[in-house]
Amino acid sequence: MANPSQPGRAMLRYKPPLSRLISLTLFSVVTTVLVSVGAADYLAQRNTHLRGLRESVESTARQLASALALPIWNFQEDLTRKIVDNALQDRAVVAVAVHDSVTGSAVVVRRRDAQGELRDASGDEPPLGEIHVFQPITYNGRLIGSVDVHATDTHVIETLRGLMLKMLLGIVLMNLLVVGLLHIVLDRLVVRPLKAVENYAAHVSSSEDADALPPVGALPREVESLSSSIVVMVRKLRERYEALAASRHGLAEAESRYRDLYENALAGIFRSLPDGRLISANSAMARILGYESPDDLVASITDLGSQMYLRACDRDRLLNAVARLGQVSNFRFPFRRADGDVRQGLIHVRAAQDGHGRFLHYDGILEDITERTRAEERLLAAHAFIQNILDSMPSVVIGVDEALHVTHCNKGALAATGLPAESLLGRRFDEVLPRLGAHLEAVRTAMRENKPVSLDSQAYEHDGEQRQEDVLVFPASTGSTPGAVIRLDDVTAKTRMEKLILQTEKMMSLGGLAAGMAHEINNPLAGVLQGVQNISRRLSPDLPANQAAARKAGCPLEAVRRYVEDREILDFLTGIRESGERAARIVANMLSFTRRAQEQSTPVNLTELLDRSLELASTDYDLKRKFDFKQVEIVRDYAPGVPPTPCSPMEIEQVVVNLLRNAAQAIFAHPPADGQPRIRLGLRREGGHAVIEVEDNGPGIDPANLRKVFEPFFTTKPPGEGTGLGLSVSYFIVTRNHGGTIRVENAEKGGARFVIALPLARETACLD
C-alpha cells in the first residue's frame, strides 16, 4: 500500500531549476518595485490634485467675498447673481450661497444640477460637493455678509482613475518586457555556463581525475573563476593528503613559529612563581624592564614585588584578585625599570593549573602604557578645557547623538533644565527641556543634510513670562556617527529693542505724511470756517447793513430770522462750525508730528509740573458721558531727590494731561470692582532718567492692542469720541522732542500703566 505522505515529501524534495527560480524572483521583485513606485506616484498626484482643488475653491471664495462686497452693500442683487453665476463656470464649484448679515437672509443661492444647468436653490437643500468653504464679506472693515462655496472633487477622482489605469497597463507591459529579456540573458550567460561547470565537477568527483580539463569557451568571469577554484581545490586536497605524511616535520615547524612569535611579541610575556621569582620571559619583557636579554632578566629578578613593583601592595592586590577570580586583566600599576625610571604598566595575569586543579605558576603579559597614559591625561585636560569654554558661554549649549540623547551640556543647560549633569546626560533632549520638542525636525534636518539650521526669535514661556530665543542647530558628527549641537540664546531684550526702533521709524515716517496732509487740509478748512462765520454775521439782526439789505429786498429781517430758527438753519451752521473746529484741532495735532517745539528747553521741577497738570485735568467734565475728573481719587507717589529735568514744560504738561484724561475716561467707562476710581501719579529717578508713571485701576488694555496704542488714528473709543492722535502726539513729544521713551503695560492688579522716561542730561533734552 502506498504511503500517503510520499507525494508531500516529493514536493518538499522538488527544487526548481535555477533559470525558473531566477525568473520568478525577477518577476516578483520587478512587480513589487513597479507597483510600489506606481502607488506612491498615484497617492502623490491624488494629494496634489485634491490640495490644488481645495486651494482653488478657497481662492474662489476670497475673490467672491471681495467682488460681492460693493453689490451687497448697495443691494444690487442682479449684479450679485451675475458674479455668482460667473463663479459657477468653474466645473469644480457646484453651489454658491450669499447671505446678508444685516438682514440675516439669503441674497442669492445658486447651484448646478446634474445636467449642468444653473438654477436658484433654497438654503435648506443639502450641498452637492464634498468641499465647503465659508468666507465672510466685509466692507470698510464692517461685516456685511458671507458667502458659502460648495465644490466637488468628482472630476479630480475621474482624472486620477484614468491615470491609474494607464499606470497599471504600463507596469504590466514593463514587467513582461524586463522579465523576458532578463530570462534570456541569464539563461545564456549564467545558467548554461553553470551547467557546464556542474558537469565538470561531477566528472572530477567520480573519476578522481585531477588533470581533467575544465569547460572552455565564452564563459563569464565568475563561472570561469569557479571552474578554476574547483581545479585548485582538487589540487590542494591532494597536497594536504601528501602533507599528512610529513606531520612530524609540520609540528616542528609549528613549534618554531610559536617560539618566534613568543620571542618577537611587542608585549612582555613572562611566567613566575608565587615567591616572585621568574621562570621564563621573552625579549619584550626584558626590554620593558631595562635588561639586556631574557636570561639576564630571569637571573636578576628574584622578587617581583620589590624589584619591579613600585608599591609592593600593588602585587599583593593583584595576586589576591587572581586567587579569587582565576585571572585578572587590565590591572594598572606603576613599575620600576632596572635604571630606576618609573613607568606606567598594564598587566594581565592568570593562574595556571594542571589536570587535577593543582596550582603550577602565574602566566602574565606586561604592556608599557606610559605614553598612552600621558596621552589620556592630555585628552582629559583638553576635554576639561573645552568644557570650561562651553560653561563660560552665556548661551544654553546641548550636544546630542543620532538618537537625540544628550551627550554634552554646559552650565547654561544645567541652569535652564534645573537638573544635575548626571541626570541630564543620556536622556532625550526634548525630555529634559520640553520646549525644544517644537524644534525636533530642525535637529534632524541639521544631522541629515549636514548643514546648520537657524531659527530666529522662537517664543516660549518662562516663569509666566513670554520670552524669545534664537535656536541654532549645527551638525557635529564624530566619524560615521552623526550628532548635533543645539545653542539657545535669549534675545528677549534684543527683540523688544528692535520692536521699539521699528515703532519709532514708523512714527517718523507717518509724521511726514501727517504734515503734508495737514497743510493741504488747512486751506479749504479755513474757507469753510470763514464762510460759516460770515453766514452767521449776515443773519444777525444787530448789524445795520443786514437791516438795510432786508428792507431793500422787502423781507423783514425778523421774518428771515424766524424762518432760519424754525428750519434749524442756525443749528446746522453751529454743527458745521463745531465740526470744522474739531477738524482744525485734528490738523493741529497732525502738525505736531513734524513741528519742533518753539519753547526753549529749560530745567523744570517735575513735581510742580505734575501738580499743574492735575489742576488742568480736574477741569475736565462731560455731562453726556457722566464723566467728572473731580470724582477720581488721585494718589501722588513722588520720590524725593528728583533733580530739575530739562524739557519743554508746556509739551510735557500736554502729555500728562492727555494721559490723565484717558485714564479717567477708561475708569468711568468701565468702573472698578471697588467702585472708587483711582489714578496713581508717580515720579522717581532711575539712573540718568526722570521717570513719570500714570497708572489707573480701570479695565487695562487688550494685549493685542498694546503695540498699536501709539499709532496715529488708532482708537478704541466709539466713532466721534476720539481722533486716535492724542497718544501719537504724546509719543512724538517724548521720543523726538525730548529724546526720552514712553511705553504702556498692564498693571499687576488691573488697569493700565504709562511710563515716561526723560533724560536728565542737558545735551539729550531735545533731539532732531
Describe the protein's architecture and organization.
The protein is an alpha+beta fold. It is 50% helix and 21% strand. The protein contains 22 helices and 24 strands. The strands form six sheets. A five-stranded antiparallel sheet has the order 3-2-1-5-4, covered by helices on one side. Strands 7-6-10-9-8 form a five-stranded antiparallel sheet, sandwiched between helices. Strands 12-11-15-14-13 form a five-stranded antiparallel sheet, with helices on both faces. A hairpin with a 2-residue loop joins strand 21 (678-686) and strand 22. The chain starts with 5 loop residues before the first helix and ends in a 9-residue tail after the last strand.
List the helices and strands and how they pair.
Layout: H1 6-13, H2 18-73, H3 77-87, E1 93-100, E2 106-112, E3 118-120, E4 131-139, E5 142-151, H4 154-207, H5 221-244, H6 247-264, E6 268-272, E7 278-281, H7 283-289, H8 294-300, H9 304-307, H10 312-325, E8 327-336, E9 342-353, E10 359-368, H11 370-392, E11 396-401, E12 406-409, H12 411-417, H13 421-424, H14 429-432, H15 440-449, E13 453-462, E14 465-475, E15 483-490, H16 492-538, H17 544-553, H18 557-566, H19 569-591, E16 602-604, H20 606-617, E17 621-622, E18 627-628, E19 633-638, E20 645-647, H21 649-669, E21 678-686, E22 689-696, H22 726-737, E23 741-746, E24 752-759
Parallel strand pairs: 19-21
Antiparallel strand pairs: 1-2, 1-5, 2-3, 4-5, 6-7, 6-10, 8-9, 9-10, 11-12, 11-15, 13-14, 14-15, 16-20, 17-18, 21-22, 22-24, 23-24
